[in-house]
Amino acid sequence: MAMASTLTVLPSSRSSSPAESQRSSFSSRQNLSVRLSRATAGGSSIQLINTRRQQQSFLSPPAPANSDRSVTARFQLQAPLISPHDQWGNWTVLFATGAFGIWSEKNTNIGGALSGALVSTLIGLAASNLEVISSNAPAFSIVLEFLLPLAVPLLLYRADMRRVIKSTGALLLAFLLGSVATTVGTVVAYLLVPMRALGPDSWKIAAALMGRHIGGAVNYVAIADALGVSPSILAAGLAADNVICAVYFSTLFALASRVPAEAPISDTGIANDAESDNGKKLPLVQTATALAVSLAICKSGYYLTKYFRIQGGILPAVTAIVVVLATVFPKQFAYLAPSGEAMAMILMQVFFTVVGASGNIWSVINTAPSIFLFALVQIAVHLAMILGLGIFGIAIATFLGIGFGVAVLKAI
After folding, report:
1. Helix/strand/coil for 290
2. How far is it, in rounded angstroms, from Cα 125 to Cα 111?
3. pLDDT of residue 362
4. Nearest 10 degrees: Cα torsion 371, 373, 376, 377
5. Which of 210, 213, 242 is nearest to 229 (CA)?
6. Local structure of 82: helix, strand or coil
7. pLDDT of 62-96, one tens digit each?
């Protein structure tokens, strides 16, 4: 919305009546008339005509023939539909967009293909660039500073490392192999596609994408926050990587379609106890406790980062704290996990909405292709290493078997 105003002040000519010259030094009469005219382009023109009848004495200089003075003031006002200081309006948009992202992922084909996080990000991006909401509302800083760290412990109440190592078995070795392949793929992709157009954000988004491919969205957010990735680059990276991941997982499913499924590993104990307790009781106390514990963990993480002067390290700090606690007290934290994960999902959707709303759509369009190409090379190298090391491992095992038989078993 734009408005232009013109202010014109016109003092009248002064009379030189001798009868009024005595009173001119003590009093004056002012006549103010206002004319308001509206311009055709939606602007406004305001003309103020100030007529002051102040008489001239014999010591006063002669008044000019035309003493009209014109002062023009022009100003432009551009405001979104919802003011950045409208707290209720901004929070309504953030949570409504997050809820729509969750709903679309579970109930629509497009949402399922894009993911709820990307849907919320794109809607937030469109809302801010179409002037529905501001791109720097105070509510955004509250989400980034408080709600995002609060969501991380809620997501990780099941992070019992002893249970993870015991239940994963050979999958842990595959995870370590995949992590190494992702690291190598990141280095190769950054050498081939350095993304120089992104400036100092190039290596930051490369590190964040590496963390995302190893540990998921929480790692992506934590690394981006710690390194200070700009919102537009963060949104572009999320959009480009979701497309690459869709192609990657489709390829994996196609390759694994002929592989017979393994027998499921029975997971008794803590998880089942938590589910049975959840079925017997209303989750009110469970939800309140999960929220209080997460707040206490965030306070501890904030204290540690402040004490050791680690800038931007609150997310890694709270992650480390909750993993240690979930490993030491597995049963208690697994009991809180269902309610914690539900709240964390809502808060993460709000965060992705803020990521989109803080970005510039033209910046996303300009930077997404280079990030897309980087992620494509990164995933391609990762997949090639996984498949190549698998075949290479079979060959090594064959040669080792032959050599061991000839050198050792034959001598026995």
Report:
1. helix
2. 16
3. 85
4. -110
5. 210
6. coil
7. 555 554 454 444 444 457 999 999 999 999 999 99
Distance from C-alpha of 344 to C-alpha of 58, rounded to nearest angstrom: 83
Query: What is the distance between the alpha carbons of residues 130 and 137, in angstroms, rounded to a whole number?
Result: 15
Tell me the one-letter amino acid at 133. Answer: I
How far is Cα 3 from Cα 42, in angstroms, rounded to an integer? 7
Q: What is the pLDDT of residues 275-308, one digit of tens each?
A: 444 445 558 999 999 999 999 999 999 999 999 9
DSSP 197: G
Instruction: Go through the chain and tell me how many residues it has.
Output: 412
Kindly tell me the burial class for residue 359, based on how many C-beta atoms sit within 10 Å of its own C-beta (0-12, 13-18, 19 or more). buried
Percent of the chain with pLDDT over 90: 43
d(CA 218, CA 211): 9
Q: Which residue has the tokens 């038989």?
A: 405
Q: Are strands 8-9 and 29-38 parallel, antiparallel or unpaired?
A: unpaired
Residue listed under structure tokens 């981006």:
224
Residue 173 exposure: Cα atoms within 13 Å on the Cβ side: 4
Q: Is residue 336 a contact partner of residue 278, using CB atoms and an 8 Å limit?
A: no
Does 226 score more than 90 pLDDT? no
Q: Could you tell me how far CA 64 lies from the centroid of its own chain?
A: 64
Between CA 206 and CA 143, with CA 197 as vertex, the angle to 5 degrees is 55
Which pair of structure tokens corresponds to residue 375? Answer: 């992620």
Query: Letter for the amino acid at 51?
Result: T
